[in-house]
Amino acid sequence: MTTRADTEVGVAFGVGESAPRPDGIPKVTGHFAYASDLHAQDMLWGATRRAPHAHATITSVDVGPAVAMPGVHAVLTYDDLPAERFQGQIVTDQPVLADGTIRYWGEVVAIVAADDPTTARAAADAIEVEYEYLDPLTDVDEALAAGEVLREAVAYRGVRDVHGAVVVEATYETATQDQAPLGNEAGIAIPDGAGGIDVYGPTQWTHVDHEQIVACLGLRPEEVRVHPTGLGGAFGAREDLSLQTHLCLLALQSGRPVRMVFGRAESFAAHVKRHAARMYYRHEADLDGNLVRVEAKLLLDGGAYSMTSPAVVANAVGFAVGPYRCPNVFIDGYALRTNNPPAGAMRGFGAVQTGFAVESQMDRLAEELGMDPLELRLLNAIGPGDVLATTGQVITEPLPTREVIESVRAMPLPEDSISSDVRDLPGGTGLTTPSSVVVRGVGYAVGFKNLAFSEGFDDFAEARLTLTPVGIDIHTAAIEVGQGMVTVLEQIARTVTGVESVRVVFDHTSQIGSAGSTSASRQTQMTGGAVMRAAEQLRTEILEHYGAEALSNDGVWRNGELVVSLVEACLEREFSAHVRHRHQETDEPDENGQGNLHVDFAVSAHRAVVDVDPVLGLVKVVKIDTAQDVGFALNPMSVIGQIEGGTMQGIGLAIMEELVIDHGVVRNASFTDYLLPTFLDAPPVEAVLIEQPSSWGPFGAKGFAELPTISSTPAVVAALRAATGKALTRVPVRPEDIAF
Amino acid sequence: MEIVRPDSVAGVLDALASHPDALVLAGGTDTMVLVNAGALRPEYVISLRHVEDLKAWNARFIGAGVTYARLEESEIAALAELSRTVGSPQIRAAGTLGGNLGTASPAGDALPFLAAVDATIELVSKHGSRTMPWDEFLIGPKQNALEPAEIILGAHLPDDMPWRTAFAKIGVRQAMVISIASVCVTRNEAGETTVALGAVGPTVLRARRAEMMVSAEKDPDEAALDEFQRLVSEESRPITDHRSTAEYRRMAVGVLARRALERCLV
Amino acid sequence: MNVRLIVNGRTINVEVTTPLSLLQVLREELGLLGTKDACEQGECGSCSILLNGDLVCSCLVMAADADDLEVTTVEGIGTDGNLHPLQRAFVEHGAVQCGFCTPGFIVAGVHLLDQNPVPTSGEIREALSGNLCRCTGYGGIERAIQSLVEGT
User: Fold this and answer.
1) Which chains pack against A, by 3+ Cβ pairs within 8 A?
2) At which of A525, A554, A582 does a domain end?
3) pLDDT band for position A419 (50/70/90)?
4) Is the model's pLDDT at A716 over the cut of 50?
C-alpha cells in the first residue's frame, strides 16, 4: 500500500487522457454481451409477420394455421392488444400492430412466439393475410399538396421584400440513408411471475421506451423494467421502439421469456431511417458577398408515422442557413407523411440534409460572386455575440466558426500525384480506371448543429455515485452505444474524486431516473455533467466527514496520511450522491420560429480531396482534413474515433449509401446492395481539435460527434464538383450523375 | 437433413443418382445465402468439399472446385484480375469457379473470362460426360444447361490461349461489390480480339461486331478504339435495376471494354 | 446427424438436423457468442472464422459440412487474461467502438499477420476489405495493425 497521496500528479486515466475503454477487452475477446447474445431459461422465440406492401387495406387475417402449429405459444394481432394500441415518443400514432391499414412496407401485422426460431418463422408465415392494394403516396411534394403534414416548422426573420444583388437558386435532394448499425435488432422480455416484465432491447433512451411500453401493456410503471443491453451501434436507429413492445406482449401472453433476433433484411424494415429531403433554396447576397436574404422550403419525408420527425424538421429549419449571419430569413420546413418507411433520427438529425444544401448554396454563391468559397464563409461566419440567422437568438457560448475554417484551410494538402496503387484509384481493384484519366478535386464545407435538446424540452440527466469498498460506482440510465461515453464518465469521476477505480453501472428504469437520450450529441455534457456534479458532491461529503483533503483508491487522506481505507469508510456509512442535471432552459418557438430555442452549438469544417474518373463517374476519396469544435477533448483517442467514424458515414451518404425505395418498397434491404464504405473506401483522416471550453460542459467539453457527419458530405460533393464541373445537387452522387 | 461428403466425382454421382433432388454444395457462398434466408431447405446435401478431382487446375482446365483465392495466383492476367474482385477475401477463400457457373448470374465475375476465351464447360453424370461451349451452358439469367443428376466438372481453356487478356469491373465501392458492368478482353498476336460483357444482359455476352471490327485493326488508332467502344455499348443489352441504370451500364461497358483493350495493346 | 468439430483445439460433437450455418451452431448450440451475426450473406465479415486455416464467413459454411474440420473463433485467439497482441492493440489504438465487428476483425487481422507479417497499408486495407465497421471509419483499426507491423 502506498503511504502518500499522489495528489500533485493526479489520478491516472483522468480527463484529457486517451483512457482505454472499460469494455475494450470483453469486446476484443468476444465476451461482451450484446442484445443478440441474451438467453433465458425456458425461453421462446418470437417472429413477426410483416406486410409486403407500402399501402394496403387488410381485408382478412386468419391466424388459425399458426395457432394450430405444434410448438406455437402465442399469436397476436391488433385485436389482441390489451391497452394503448399506438406508440411513438413524440406523437403516439404508430399502431403497435397494423390496425387494418398498411401504411409502409414492412409494417408488422402479427407476432408469434414458438419453441424455436424455425417454428416461429413458419408460424408467422402461416398466418393468412389478404390485402387490398392501395396506391402509395411516396413523393414529398405530393404529400404537401395533399396536406399530409406531420409538422410544419418555420423560421421567419427580417423583411420579406429586401433583396440582394446576387441571387442563386437551386433544388437539392438527399436520399434515404440507413444507420446500418452492425448489430441487428434483438432482445428478450422476461415475465417476472407477478404480472410484471423485464425487457432488454436495442435502445438509446430506456425511459422514453418505458413510457410507451407501459401504456401499451396497460401495466403500472413499476411493473415494467426496461434494461440497457450491449448495442452493436445505434446512430439514431434505436431512438424509436422496434421490437420491445412485441416482445413484452408475447412474453405476457405466453408466460415465458421471449427472444427475438432479427436478420439484416428485417433490420432494414424494423428501424427508422434518415429522412430523404427535397430542399428548394434561394440565397441572395450583396456584391461584397454579405448574405442579405435566404429563403428555403424544406420537404422531409417522414414516412408513415411521426417517430421523431417533429424534432428533425425543427432542426433542419434551425440549421438551414448554416453558421452564417443573415438578416432576412424565410424558411418553411415540413415533415411529411408518406407511405415510405418511417424516418426518424440519424446522426446529424435534420442538420445533415440542410447542411448539404446550404453548403452547396454557399459554393454556388461564391462562384457567382467570383469569390473564394472559404472567404465567403469567413465573411459571413457567426461567432459569440452574433445572432443565429434562423431563430434570432444571440450566440453566448464559444463558437469557433472562423477558427475551424481557417484551421482546415491551413492544413497541408496531399501530394498532387495520383496513386500508382490500383487500390487507391477510382474503381480500385476492378481496374476500371487508368491513372491518366483521373481528375482531382478539392472541396470544403462547414457543419453546424445544436447540442442537447431544444425548443423548451425539459432536458435532464440523472447520475448517482456511490462509494464502494473498491472504488466508486457510477449509476446511470444513459446508454452506451459504442461511442465511448462509458469511458469519459469514468474519466470525469476519476479526475473529480481522485479515485482511479471507478466503474459505470448501467441501471434499468426502476433503479434510477432518466438520463435522456444518447443522441443530440448530448451525453458528454448531460450525463457527463451529472456525473461531474455528483462526483463533486460525493468527494465533498467524504472529505467533510473525515476532515480530509484527498481521496484515492487507497482511501481518504488527511495531511498526507491515510485516515481510512475505502473498505473502512464503506463499513462506517454509505456515501453516495445523486444528481439531476439540467442545462439552461430553452424557449419554445414563437409563431415565427423565433426565440432562444437552442442551448448551445458546435461547428466543424471538412476538406475533401477526391480523385474522379469523370468518364465512368467513379470516385475515390483520397484524403479528408477536418477541424472540429470539441470544447475540450476529454479523451482524445475517442474524439478522433468519433471524427473518423462520423466522417465515414458522411462519405457514405455522399457517394454510395442510398436505400432504394420504389413505390414505397425497399429494393436493397441487404448488405449486398445497401453499400457501406469498406476499408478500401476509407481515406486517411487528419483532424485538428479546436478547444474553446464550453461554460457548461464538464471540464469545458462539448458534444460534437454528429458534426463530422454533417460537414463531410458537402465537402466531398464540393470536391466532386471541383473535379467534374457538374452541379451535383443530389446525394448520394451516383456514377451516372457524374458520367452524364 | 442428411449430408454426404464423397471424396470422388463417382461418389458424388452415386449419391446424386439416389437423391436426384439433393442440394450439391460447393463453396456455399451463394447457396448458404438462400439457406440462411429460408429460401432453400434441403433434405439431402452432397458436399463437394472433399472431391479432389474438382480442385484440379492446370493451363488447360480449371476444376469447378477451384477457389478464387487460388485463381488470384493465375498467370493468366484476366483470370487473376477477376478473381481479386470476387466478393471479399473470405468469399474468395470459399467461392469456386463452379459456383459462378452453377448460379449463372449475368454478374458472375468469372463468366466474362470464360466467354472471352471460348471456354467449354464439362458436365458429368452417371451416363458419362458432355462438354459444351460456354454459351450453350449459360442460357439465361440464373439459368444453365445442367441436368438433374449432373454436376459441373470444370471449364476447359483453349490450347492457344490469347496472348494478352484483361478484365475490368465496375461497382459502386472499392471492394466487396456486385458488378454493375464488367468486361474481359483478349487479343492475340495476330490482333484477333474477343470481348465479353458481364451484367449488361440476361447472360454474359460477346460483342461480336466490336470484335470483328477491331480484330481487323493491326494497330487500332483512336478512331478504331472509338468505334470499338461504340459497338460494345451498342451490343450490350442492359437493364435498369436497383444497382444501376441501363443507360449508364451501356455507356460504361463500352468504356471499360476500350480501356481493357488498351491494356492488351500495350 | 452427429458432426465432429475441432473448435479452438477442442473436439466437440454436435447433433445437427437441419442445414444450419456453422455460425448458428457456434452461437446457439455451442454458446460461442463471440462470432457475430450481422448479415447472413457473407457481406460484412462479422462472423469471420478460420476453417482449417482459411479465413471464411461462418454464415456461409453449412455446419454439417464442417465435420472433422478445425475451426478457430475469436475465443480461440486470446482470452481476457491472455490477450493476443492484436487484441491488445485494438484496445490501445481505439479500434473498438460498439465492438460488434471487432471479433471478425480480430480473426481476419490475425490471419493477415500470420500470412504477411509486414503488410503495407494497401495490403492491410485489402485484406480487411471483407469486414465492415460502421463506427470507427477504420482509422483506429489500421493503426492497431500498423502498431504490430512496426513492432516487428
Assistant:
1) B, C
2) A582
3) confident
4) yes
Q: Which architecture does CATH list for C2-76?
A: Roll (3.10)
Contact A21 C91 (CB under 8 A): yes
**Residue numbers in C near A685 (CB within 8 A):** 137, 139
- Is A147 inside a domain boundary? no
C79 Cβ under 8 Å from any chain A Cβ: yes
DSSP strand pairing (A108-114 vs A44-50): antiparallel
Do A182 and A663 touch, CB atoms closer than 8 A?
no
Q: What is the mean pLDDT of chain B?
A: 97
Phi, psi (deg, nearest 5) at residue B259? -65, -40
pLDDT in tens, B55-65: 999 999 999 99
pLDDT digit string, tens, across residues C111-136: 999 999 999 999 999 999 999 999 99
Among the listed residues A260, A252, A297, A256, the one whose alpha carbon sits nearest the alpha carbon of residue A278: A297
Specify whether A347 is located in the same domain as A480.
no
Which residues does chain B have within 8 Å of residue A655's beta carbon, measured at their own beta carbons? 172
Question: Three-state SS across B194-258?
Answer: EEEEECCCCCCEECHHHHHHHHCCCCCCHHHHHHHHHHHHHHCCCCCCCCCCHHHHHHHHHHHHH
Yes or no, beta carbons of C60 and B32 under 8 Å apart: yes
Q: Are A200 and A229 in contact (CB under 8 A)?
A: yes
What are the extents of the domains in chain C? Answer: 2-76, 85-151
- Cβ contacts of B34 on chain C, cutoff 8 Å: none
B36 inside 8 A of chain C by CB: yes
Question: Is it true that domain B164-265 has CATH number 3.40.50.720?
Answer: no
Residues 6+ apart with CB under 8 A from A11: A494, A495, A497, A498, A499, A500, A552
Q: Is pLDDT above 70 for A6?
A: no
Confidence of residue A587 (pLDDT cuts 50, 70, 90): very high
pLDDT reported for residue C151: 55
> Do residues A466 and A410 both lie within one domain?
no
Q: Which pLDDT does position A10 carry in this prediction? A: 79
Mean pLDDT, all residues of chain A: 97
pLDDT computed for residue A8 by the predictor:
45
pLDDT at C116 (0 to 100): 97
Confidence of residue A418 (pLDDT cuts 50, 70, 90): confident
Please indicate, yes or no, if residue A722 is contained in any of the structural domains.
Answer: yes
For the domain C85-151, what is the CATH superfamily, name and number? [2Fe-2S]-binding domain (1.10.150.120)
Q: Is the ipTM of this complex over 0.90?
A: yes
**Number of domains making up chain A:** 3
18-77 of C, contacting B, C-beta below 8 A: 18-19, 21, 40-43, 45, 48, 54-57, 59-62, 64-65, 67
**Three-class DSSP category at A529:** helix
> By C-alpha distance, which of C74, C72, C62 is closest to C18?
C62
Computed on alpha carbons and rounded to an integer, the radius of gyration of chain A in Å comes to 26
Q: Are residues A512 and A412 in the same domain?
A: no
